Amino acid sequence: MTEAMFPEDNSGPNMRTITHVIYGLFLLGLIGAAFLGLAVVAAIVLAYFKRSDAVGTLYAGHFDWVIKTFWWGLLWMVLSAIATHIFIGWISGLVAIVWLLYRLIKGWLALFAGQTPEAAI
Q1: Roughly what angle, to the nearest 10 degrees, separates helices 15-32 and 38-50?
Q2: Could you give the CA distance from residue 29 to residue 115 in angstroms, rounded to a whole number?
Q3: Which CA distances in Å does 47 have to 3, 40, 43, 74, 93?
Q4: Which sequence spans correspond to the domains of the chain?
Q5: Calpha distance 46→18 (Å, rounded)
Q6: Which residue ranges traverse the bilayer (predicted)?
């Protein structure tokens, strides 16, 4: 007799690990290769790809947090790049980078605490 083979529930990394990877890739790309580094793109693609698997869990808030951080950060970096022509873009670019780092750190610390980023103080 042959037994039916059912896939294991724990195959592959769990949501917590994936969320840590997303934060790590985003931070690595931000620090190492300017804002649009390949690691940031990989983090956002992974967040969008796994977002549906996280619905109804606290990790869904983290995925939304990272995705919103990316798009708002991209907007502010583009506006800062345009504003460098009037010499104010350097200041707004620095503020955008500090804001991005703040959001990543706040989200990652909330993940370690087992909370969503919005609930973390």
Answers
A1: 160
A2: 24
A3: 36, 10, 6, 16, 25
A4: 15-48+59-113
A5: 8
A6: 21-49, 69-102
CA distance 2 to 14: 30
Q: Dump pLDDT digits (tens) for 25-70.
A: 888 888 876 555 788 888 999 999 998 888 888 899 999 999 999 9
Helices (DSSP H) in the chain: which residue ranges? Answer: 15-32, 38-50, 58-83, 89-113
CB-based contact 48:60 (threshold 8 Å): no
Q: How far apart are CA 85 and CA 7, in angstroms?
A: 57
Radius of gyration of the chain (CA): 18
Q: How far apart are CA 19 and CA 65, in angstroms?
A: 11
